[in-house]
Every structure is written in structure tokens, then in C-alpha cells.
Here is the input.
Amino acid sequence: MLVAVAFVMSVTIASAAPIVIKFSHVVAENTPKGQMANKFKQLVDERLSDKVQVEVFPNSQLFGDNKVLEAMILGDVQMAAPSLSKFKKYTKSLQIFDLPFLFKDMAAVEKFQQSPVGQKLLVATQKKGLIGLGYLHNGFKQLSANDVLRVPADAKGKKFRIQSSDVLAAQFEALGAMPLKKPFSEVFTLLQTKAIDGQENSWSNIYSKKFYEVQPHITESNHGVIDYFVITSTEFWMGLPDDIRVEVKKALDEAIVFGNKIAADKAISDRQKIIDSKRCTITKLTDAERQQWVDAMKPVWKQFEKEIGKEYLEAAVSSN
Ligand code: SIN
Here is the structure.
């Protein structure tokens, strides 16, 4: 009798335990991704608190960007939103987002992501056990360095930290520079100790991680984009009860809309905060100077066109 009661109690307790979603990311909380993750947690808490519990781990506290996807497949983390530049092992097609000077503005990025071709990319990693739940914006990348970078020749021979993307490596090699693939968590120290000369990132990452305090010069190049793939493991996602999956997705979609608004605001306000700090010079390019960067970097498109897929490239170009 006692054994039977204990058994019933343990089944009841087990079935009442909420589903835990660990959401791991590498940036600070005062960023588009940090704010989106916190909003997602807030919405899930409000709507599903007895059934689903979201735990957010910012600043690479749980996993760095070099480990998180493997950990997700192993079930050690359920959600993340790595930069689109970090999926090389899982699909070649997402490399499209790394092509320099591909999108003319964030509206074009959004248009491409929401197009049928952009939506098709959400399942590009599925065979490898990961499923894209949506895109999140951060914004355009700027170049920062120890010296002023006005024309491509200024980058020659310099070491730049890049994300783990072969397209980004080719982009810096096209300038005669030396790219180094390093996790985001190491960038500040690499810059501070001058182990590297420069890096490329969005205004919000340069501000929130204080790169501008250890980089005297920023070139407003807008040469590429940092956006995110909100991702989960196929096994975890398909294992959720249908009604819970629908509610979690709804909360996530709303959090992404919220995060995208923050991204648009921060691209302006964090840029201004960096200018106001007077810690570094901001180099604005003339049309002729900008054209030099386009001419130097754009040949990379041809190099990756086949790997990425012509269909994706054409759709991205036409979103402009
Ligand atoms: C991120 O925004 O998640 C990090 C980008 C980077 O690695 O530079």
C-alpha cells in the first residue's frame, strides 16, 4: 500500500515539474539579444509559469559561442541565438549573411529573411538536429582598429578577430589582412593586450562589451550584418506537447518583434554613446573611399556563390 502511494506521488510530482528551457547567449543583457531573451522569459513566466520555466544565461556564462550548438544537440541547453556567422558546421547556406556589402539596409535584411527563400533557411540545419525558430536583428558591422582605417590598404598586414566563418576569413584575406577566428568572450582581452589589431562588430556589441575603450578608431563601414538565428534542438522542440510548443513559439515571436525594435534603437543610441565618450575617432567614408572597400571585398561573393547556392544569392540581392 505504502509503496503504491509513494509511486503515485512520485508520478504526480514528476508530471507536475515544469519543462526547463535554458537560453544561453554570449552578449550583455543591454543588447537586442539580451533584451529579447529576457522578454521571452517574462512572457513565458506570465503565460506558462506552472508548465515552462525559462532560465536565461547571458555573457557566455553557460556556454561560449564555440560550444553552445554541440551542447544543444546533447540536450544541455535548449535555446540560443548565435550570430548567423557561426553555423558553418551545420549548413553552408547561412553563409549568405556574411557576404560583404550584400544588403543595402536593415529593411532589405528583414525582407530577405521573411521571404520564402529566407524562411526555407530556417530548416537548413534540421538534418544536423537543430531547427531555426526565427531571425533576430542586431545591425550593421563597423570596423575598429588601433589605427585609422580609411581605405582597404590601411587594413593590410593587420590582425583582425573574426567569428567562425570562412566567408569572413576570405573577406579579410582579400584586404591582405590576417583573420583570427576567436570566441566573442575573448575579444575584449585580445584587443586590450593588443594581441590583435582590430575587429568588426555592431554598434551595440562595440558599446556593451566596451570594445570602444580599447580601440582608438572606428570606421563607419556598414560593410556587413550581424543578425541571429534563434535555434533549438529538433528533438527538444518536437518532444514538447503541441499546446506548449504553440504557446512558446508565440511568446518567442513576440519577443523577437520586441528585440528587433531594440536593435533599431541601439544602432542609433549606442553609436551616439560611443561618440559622446570621446574615447575613439569615428571615420566616415566618402563615396569614393567606400567604393574602394566594396571593390576589395566583393570578389568574395564569387568564391562562395556555389557553396551558398545561387537561389539564395539572387533572392538576397533582389531584396534590395
Ligand atoms: C553576438 O552578437 O552574439 C556575438 C557576435 C560576435 O561574435 O562578434
About this structure: The mean pLDDT is 95. The beta strands are 19-24, 52-57, 79-80, 130-145, 159-162, 178-181, 198-202, 217-220, 225-233, 281-284. The chain has one domain: 2-318.
